[in-house]
Structure formats: C-alpha cells, structure tokens
Design brief:
It is a single chain. By secondary structure, the chain is an alpha+beta fold. The chain has one domain (about 5-130): Roll (Nuclear Transport Factor 2, Chain: A). Helix content is about 30%, strand content about 40%. It contains 3 helices and 6 strands, in the order αββαββββα. β3 (about 60-70) and β4 (about 75-85) form a beta hairpin.
Length: about 130
C-alpha cells in the first residue's frame, strides 16, 4: 500500500467515518504528532479519541480532501475541515456556527505504517469562525 493510499484511508475511514478497524494497522504503536510547534507522542487509540472529540463538538464533521501528494515515504494532505458547532469545544459551548478551516498534514510512512505526523491548521480562522458575532 502506498503512502497516498494510507493517507486516504486514515482520512476517509478514520477521520470522516470514525471506522478505525482498517486505520489502526496503518499507524505505529506510538508516533510523534507535531501541531503548532508542539510535539506529543500519541497512539492509534488516542487518535481515535481525538477524532471522537471533534465529532462530538461537530457531529457533521468532515475533511474534504483537496489533494494528496506522495512519494515512497511521505504523504502531504491538503484538506478543509467542515462542521457545525453543536457541542462543547475548547471551552466554548455550542454556537451552531458552521466552520470551514484549512489544514495540511504530512504523514511519514516507513514499512507501510505511519511513524510521524505533522498537522498545520489555521487556528485563528477556527477561533474567529466560532466566536463570530
């Protein structure tokens, strides 16, 4: 399976449909997740919990994948997160507002599994869309 295939499965089955049966086998037992200049070691179970949190706050959560560019060890994903804020998120009660936030992910793949992830999101746009008057 190519890094492009792996990325597509993680986003379509894991993030969008919350079906992790095929995703767990594509992730290292533990892997560094880099977001906003911070790094945390995470697991497939923790990723599933993160996804569940997004879906609780945004029940119609969906990543629209615009492109996946890959070579033999890396996949770059450009996507827009869409959803309607229906539950608590980041200390903010549900607003009912719709969001569309640009994201980029870079997944490093070794031996057919993801061993490292970088996420770049427009956090200011997310906050502005949730707090808009």
């Amino acid at each position: 399976m190519t890094p492009r295939d792996i990325a597509r499965i993680i986003f379509e089955e894991g993030w969008n449909r919350r079906e992790f049966a095929n995703v767990h086998g594509l992730l290292a037992d533990e892997f560094p997740l880099h977001i906003g200049g911070m790094t945390r070691i995470t697991t497939g179970a923790e990723l599933e919990s993160i996804v569940a949190g997004w879906h609780t706050a945004f029940p119609d959560f969906r990543f629209a994948i615009h492109s996946i560019t890959a070579d033999e060890h890396m996949a770059a994903v450009r996507a827009t997160l869409h959803g309607t804020h229906q539950g608590p998120w980041g200390g903010l009660e549900a607003t009912g507002r719709s969001i569309a936030v640009e994201h980029a992910f870079f997944l490093r793949v070794e031996g057919g599994i993801v061993v490292e992830v970088w996420e770049i999101l427009d956090a200011k746009a997310l906050e502005a869309q949730l707090r808009a008057e």
